[in-house]
Amino acid sequence: METKISTLTKEVIIGHNHPIVMIGERINPTGRKKLALALEQGDMRLLQEEALRQVNAGAQVLDVNVGISGGDESALMVQAIKAIGEVTDTPLCIDSAKPEVLAAGLAVYKGKALVNSANGEESKIKEVLPLVARYKAAVVCLTMDDKGIPTDVPTRLKIADKIVNEAAKLGIPLEDIIIDPLAMSVSADDQAGLSALKALAQIKKHIGVNQTIGASNVSYGLPDRPFINSVFLAMAAVKGLTCPITDPTNWRIKETLLLIDLMMGKDEFSMNFITGYREQYPEED
Length: 285
Description:
The protein is of the alpha/beta class. It is built from eleven helices and eleven strands. An eight-stranded parallel sheet has the order 10-9-8-7-5-4-3-11.
């Protein structure tokens, strides 16, 4: 199954038979004072720099979140999409918890965007999925509903099924749905990583859609987070992960994703790994 995301000049294909697609997570002001301040001032230069930095590091899709306290998020999203489009033709993932912000972004986006996100909550089904259908976008769907985030795998699978069925009623094809089974912190729940891995496997088996996950969630509150995240990503890729939302500028993460492709037969003659390694360590050439 292939999910296609595009701008007017570039298309990215996500699928189990394709190399892993990195969705860059760094355009997000949460916990980043400089980026938040720049957005407050309407200055898009730092955002553009982050976009280019991630693309140069290997991100094939850029997640764009501009949620700041007291800001006009809809207006900022429009500005951000236009500003990023001035420096790169990389496809975007429009990220907001507010349907009106998603709508504003989709209205100005040129191409087929990825929406982040919908979930099993009735309000999100009624407000977000129709937007996805209207703009013929793809959508990340979280396995949570009005009862919260389930800890058990069967309930996550049930929520994923519900979302897929509701999307089908609106004409959203299965290939345009990317499920996020939600990785939670293992420091708070030592079964959280295992549950996420099992959910990935079950969703791949029973639904077959592409899947993403916020790998950094699993290591929250622990030391050596990039190493923990990289181990989790390697395990998740075997279970069905195809497009993680992660930090492509972290070499340990990028190296892990390159090695996953290599070991899973998706890197002919090891060229992607060799190229990535030489870019990281040019002095060894």
